[in-house]
Recover the amino acids of this structure.
């Protein structure tokens, strides 16, 4: 029973990004040169795939401090990161170190 409560608590604070949060993160990323802040690879447009690195890896909006570690949806806690780095990062607290 306690496990179920903990699981519900973790899930309850997750939500979709608002349009403002999404636009802020992508706008900041574009101003910074469309580069993944972790692996330093630059994104480029590929027809039918959008903006990707290495021809196929998409980008995601990431919480710098993960929600599971007390992070928030504050704009300063959002950034765009490539899917590969985001998957490796998981919920680690050292987001600026190479993964």
């Amino acid at each position: 029973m306690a496990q179920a409560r903990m699981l519900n608590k973790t899930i309850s604070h997750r939500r979709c990004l608002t349009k403002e949060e999404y636009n802020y993160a992508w706008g900041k990323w574009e101003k910074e040169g469309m580069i993944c802040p972790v692996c330093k690879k630059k994104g480029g447009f590929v027809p039918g795939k959008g903006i990707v690195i290495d021809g196929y890896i998409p980008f995601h909006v990431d919480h710098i401090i993960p929600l599971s570690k007390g992070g928030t949806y504050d704009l300063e806690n959002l950034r765009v990161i490539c899917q590969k780095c985001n998957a490796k990062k998981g919920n680690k607290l050292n987001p600026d170190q190479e993964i």
